[in-house]
Design a protein that fits this description.
- One of its GO terms (biological process) is RNA catabolic process.
- By secondary structure, the protein is of the alpha+beta class.
- Helices cover 21% and strands 12% of the residues.
- It has one domain (9-318): Ribonuclease Rh, Chain A (Alpha-Beta Complex), CATH 3.90.730.10.
- Strands 1, 2, 3, 4 and 5 form a five-stranded antiparallel β-sheet that branches.
- It starts with 8 loop residues before the first helix and ends in a 28-residue tail after the last strand.
- The structure holds 2-acetamido-2-deoxy-beta-D-glucopyranose (NAG) (5 copies).
Length: 321
C-alpha cells in the first residue's frame, strides 16, 4: 500500500455497503446533457447542490492508473503483454482530499479475490460470499461490446491471474465508489450490468489519452536492462506531456538494499512498475472530460538517487508480436 493514498478502511464497515452511495436516490431520468457540466471537487460539486449522477460528488479526484510488467505468468494460456505499451490498472475515485474508500456496493461484488477480504465486510458481520458467478467478461458479451472486450484483452492484462479477474476486481473495488456509475443514474430503463460496460469503456477512453510508453521513449527513456534512470527524469518527461505531475510507483528491492545503493539512506524502491495520472472530471465521468491535476501527497515510491530506477525490458516471449 502506497503512502500516497490513505485508505478510509472504516468507511467500508460504516456505510454504503448495503445500498448505493446515496440511499434513496431516484431512478427518474437524470438528464445530465441538459445541465452545464460541473467540475468535480469544485465548490459547488456537492450532493444537494448538484445531481450526483451528472457531477462526480463521491470520488471527485480521478486516477487513471497503469502497470509496467515484464511478464504475465499466463503466457502458456496466450495471455501476453502488448508491444511498446504500458497496460491498464484501472480508474480510481479518490476523495478530493486524496484519501479513498473501496467496495462501496457489495451488491455489485463480482470480484472472486476481494482484497481486502469483503467476506467480513457487512456492518453486522454477516459474511458476503466470494463471487462464484459468471466472469465479468460475460456482461460485456451480453451487450455485444466485442471491440471493447478485444481492446481489454490486449491492453488490460492480469499478472499471475486471468485478466478478467483484474477487471472484476477493479469494477467492484473502485467503480462502485463513483457517484456517476450508480445504477439509479441509468434511469427507469436501466438494464442490469449496463454500468459495467460503461465503466470499462470510460477507463479505456481515459487510458487511450495517456501513451506512457511513447511519451517516455520520445523523452529518451526506453526500457533497458543495462541502464537505469532517475525518477526525476521520468517524472519530468511525463509532466511535460501530461501538464501535471503523475505519481510514479516502484517495486522490487529498496535502493539501500541493493549493491548500487550500499550505505545510502535512500530506501525508495528500484523497479519501475506503476503510473498514476490524476484528474478532476467535468460533468459525469463517462464524458471523459478530465482536467489534469498534480498527484496529491507523495509523488513517488521510487528511489530518488540519480540512476537508481530500472525500467526493465520485457521478456520477449511475454510480448504479443
Ligand atoms: C423518462 O424519459 C422517457 C423518455 O423521455 C419517458 O417516456 C419516461 O416517462 C420518463 N420517466 C420518468 C420516470 O421520468
Ligand atoms: C477526506 O474526505 C473524506 C470524504 O469527504 C472524509 O470522510 C475524510 O474524513 C477526509 N479525510 C481527511 C484526512 O480530511
Ligand atoms: C476471506 O475470508 C473468508 C472467511 O473468513 C475465507 O473463507 C476466504 O478464504 C478469505 N478469502 C481470501 C481471498 O483471503
Ligand atoms: C533500508 O531501509 C529500510 C526501510 O527504512 C530499513 O528497514 C532497512 O534496515 C535498510 N537496510 C539497510 C541495509 O540499511
Ligand atoms: C530484462 O530484465 C527483466 C528483469 O530481470 C527480465 O524479466 C527480462 O526478461 C529481461 N529482458 C530481456 C530482454 O532480457
Amino acid at each position: 500500500m502506497s503512502a500516497a493514498r490513505r485508505v478510509l478502511a472504516l468507511a467500508l464497515f460504516s456505510q454504503g455497503v448495503l445500498g448505493g452511495l446515496y440511499p434513496g436516490l431516484s431512478t427518474a431520468n437524470h438528464t445530465c446533457s441538459l445541465a452545464k457540466p460541473i467540475l468535480s471537487c469544485s465548490d459547488g460539486a456537492q450532493p444537494g447542490l448538484v445531481d450526483t449522477c451528472c457531477t462526480e460528488t463521491y470520488g471527485g479526484l480521478i486516477l487513471q492508473t497503469q502497470f509496467w510488467n515484464t511478464y504475465t505468468g499466463l503466457e502458456s494460456k496466450g495471455q501476453l503483454l502488448p508491444k511498446d505499451s504500458w497496460t491498464i490498472h484501472g480508474l480510481w475515485p479518490d476523495f478530493c482530499n486524496g484519501s479513498y474508500t473501496q467496495y462501496c456496493d457489495l451488491r455489485r461484488q463480482y470480484d472472486p479475490l476481494p482484497s481486502p477480504n469483503t467476506t467480513t465486510g457487512k456492518p453486522d458481520g454477516t459474511p458476503v460470499k466470494p463471487w462464484k458467478g459468471a466472469p465479468i467478461s460475460d456482461y460485456i458479451k451480453r451487450f455485444r461490446k466485442y471491440d471493447l472486450l478485444d481492446f481489454m484483452n490486449k491492453y488490460w492484462t492480469g499478472l499471475n491471474q486471468p485478466s478478467w479477474i483484474l477487471w472484476a476486481h477493479e469494477f467492484s473495488k473502485h467503480a462502485t465508489c463513483f457517484s456517476t456509475f450508480d445504477t439509479e443514474c441509468y434511469g427507469p430503463a436501466y438494464a442490469r450490468h449496463e454500468e459495467v460496460t460503461d465503466f470499462f469503456e470510460t477507463v479505456v477512453a481515459y487510458y487511450q489519452d495517456l501513451p506512457t510508453w511513447r511519451w517516455l521513449a520520445e523523452g529518451g527513456i526506453a526500457p533497458s536492462n543495462r541502464t537505469a534512470y532517475s525518477v526525476a527524469d521520468i517524472q519530468g518527461v511525463l509532466r511535460a506531456r501530461f501538464g501535471k505531475t503523475p505519481y510514479v510507483g516502484c517495486g522490487g528491492p529498496r535502493f539501500n538494499e541493493t549493491k548500487a545503493g550500499e550505505g545510502s539512506a535512500d530506501n525508495g524502491f528500484t523497479v519501475l512498475a506503476e503510473m498514476w495520472y490524476y484528474y478532476h472530471a467535468r460533468g459525469r465521468v463517462q464524458r471523459v472530460d478530465g482536467v489534469p491535476t498534480d498527484a496529491t501527497g507523495s509523488t513517488t515510491s521510487c528511489a530518488k538517487a540519480p540512476g537508481a530506477v530500472w525500467y526493465y525490458e520485457r521478456t520477449p516471449r511475454s510480448v504479443r508480436h
